[in-house]
Specification:
Length: about 375
C-alpha cells in the first residue's frame, strides 16, 4: 500500500488519479455534489480495473458538506485500524469566487469560504503533508491574495512549512493553457528529516517543483493565428504535436464512451467564428494546431470544435483535461453536469507530476518514520 491520502472536494477524482499513478493510496473521499459523486462512482471502478490500479477508492466515503463533518469522524472513517504515522490530505476547494471569470466574491462567497474550511480541517486533522490547489486568481487580486496570506499564516501557526507555485498544464505536454496555484505543506519536524537540516517556518522555495518538458511553451513557439480564409490551415513546423489539440481530437476510436455526446448546434455563430478565434467570452473556436484555452465550461458554453461546426463533445473535453479514455461517464446524466465535472478538475497529467515530485521528496523518510517515532 502506498502512502495514504484523504481526498477533499473529490469531484471526478482527477487529482486522485494523478496521485494514484504516483503510488499514493486514497483511503477517504468527500464530494457534496450528489451528481458528481454518482458520476465518480460510475467511472472509477472500471478505470481501476482497466489500469489494474487498486489505489483509487471506488466510492465516495462521505457526501456531506465539509462544513458538517468533524475531524475525528474523518480520522475514524479513514483509519479504522488506527492513525498512521505518515499520511496526507489533498484537495482543490471550489474556485469560482476567486476566478477571473467569476463574480469575485472571494472568501465571502458560498464557494470561497470553503478554502478556509479546508484549512481548518488540515489544522485539526494534522496530516504529515497536504496539497492545496486553486485558480491563479487567488493570487492575482489584492483582496484574494490578502485572504490567501491569512490561510498561510494559519497553517504556519499549526507548524507547517509551506511552499507554492503556479504551474501550467501546457508546460507538461497537455494541449491546454491552464494555470493553477499549488500549495504544498509539510510538518516542520518532517521537513527537517526530509531535507537533512532545520527549516524556519517562514522559509520558502524548499520544494522541488516539477519543471515541464515544454516549460514556457506559450512564449516558446510561433503559434498560428486565426485562420481567416476558412480553408484547412497548413501544419506549422517546430511546434510539438503534443501541444496541439489536433493530437487529441483527430484520433477518436469508434464507439468510445461519451465521444458522441454534445450540445446540438443551433446558432449561426457555429459557422461564422473563424478557427482559432478565442477572443470572445463565448463561442471560442479552437485552432487545430494550437493549444486550447482553459477548459472552463458553464451551462452550454463549451469550446467550439476547430474544423466542425459544433461544440466539443464530452470525450473531447475529457481529453483536453488529460483524462484517460477508460474513464467513462453515464449516459443519463445531463450534459451540463458532465462538462462542469470535467472543467472543474485538475488536469490529470499535471496532478501526476505534482504527485511524483512529492513522492520523491518524501522517499528519504518513508522508511524511517516508524523507527524515528515521528507523527
Amino acid at each position: 500500500m502506498g502512502v495514504p491520502i484523504l481526498s477533499f472536494f473529490t469531484g471526478g477524482g482527477f487529482l486522485d488519479m494523478g496521485f494514484a499513478r504516483a503510488g499514493f493510496t486514497t483511503v477517504w473521499t468527500n464530494e457534496n455534489n450528489s451528481v458528481f459523486a454518482d458520476m465518480y462512482e460510475f467511472a472509477v471502478p472500471p478505470l481501476s480495473k482497466e489500469l489494474r490500479n487498486k489505489k483509487l477508492l471506488e466510492r465516495i466515503s462521505d457526501r456531506r458538506s465539509v462544513d458538517s463533518i468533524k475531524a475525528d469522524e474523518i480520522i475514524s472513517a479513514a483509519f479504522p485500524a488506527g492513525r498512521p504515522e505518515l499520511f496526507g490530505i489533498i484537495g482543490g476547494p471550489p474556485c469560482p469566487d476567486f476566478s477571473n471569470g467569476g463574480k469575485q466574491r472571494g472568501h465571502k462567497g458560498d464557494h470561497g469560504r470553503l478554502s478556509k474550511t479546508f484549512v481548518d480541517h488540515i489544522c485539526a486533522i494534522k496530516p504529515s503533508f497536504f496539497v492545496f490547489e486553486n485558480v491563479h486568481g487567488l493570487l492575482r487580486t489584492e483582496k484574494h491574495r490578502a485572504f490567501f496570506e491569512t490561510l498561510k499564516k494559519q497553517l504556519e501557526d499549526a507548524r507547517y512549512c509551506t511552499d507554492r507555485a503556479v504551474l501550467n498544464s501546457l508546460d507538461f505536454g497537455l494541449a491546454q493553457d491552464r494555470d493553477r496555484v499549488f500549495v504544498i505543506g509539510i510538518k516542520k519536524d518532517l521537513l527537517k528529516l526530509t531535507l537533512g537540516k532545520d527549516m524556519a517556518i517562514s522559509d520558502k522555495t524548499w520544494f522541488p517543483w516539477p519543471v515541464g518538458k515544454y516549460h514556457g511553451a506559450r512564449q516558446l513557439y510561433d503559434w498560428p493565428k486565426i485562420n481567416q480564409n476558412g480553408k484547412a490551415p497548413e501544419k506549422p513546423e517546430g511546434i510539438p504535436e503534443a501541444l496541439m489539440v489536433y493530437n487529441l481530437l483527430s484520433d477518436m476510436p469508434e464507439g468510445l464512451a461519451n465521444s458522441k455526446e454534445g450540445f446540438k448546434p443551433y446558432s449561426h455563430k457555429f459557422k461564422t467564428v473563424r478557427e482559432g478565434d478565442t477572443s470572445g467570452k463565448s463561442f471560442k473556436r479552437l485552432h487545430r494546431y494550437r493549444y486550447s484555452p482553459t477548459a472552463c465550461y458553464g451551462n452550454n458554453e463549451v469550446h467550439l470544435h476547430p474544423w466542425e461546426h459544433r461544440r466539443l463533445t464530452v470525450r473531447e473535453a475529457m481529453r483536453i483535461q488529460g483524462i484517460p479514455d477508460a474513464y467513462a461517464l453515464p449516459e443519463a446524466v445531463p450534459l451540463s453536469s458532465k462538462f462542469k465535472l470535467v472543467a472543474n478538475g485538475v488536469p490529470v497529467p499535471l496532478a501526476e507530476q505534482i504527485a511524483f515530485s512529492l513522492k520523491k521528496f518524501l522517499n528519504p523518510v518513508v522508511g524511517r518514520m516508524k523507527t524515528l517515532g515521528c507523527s
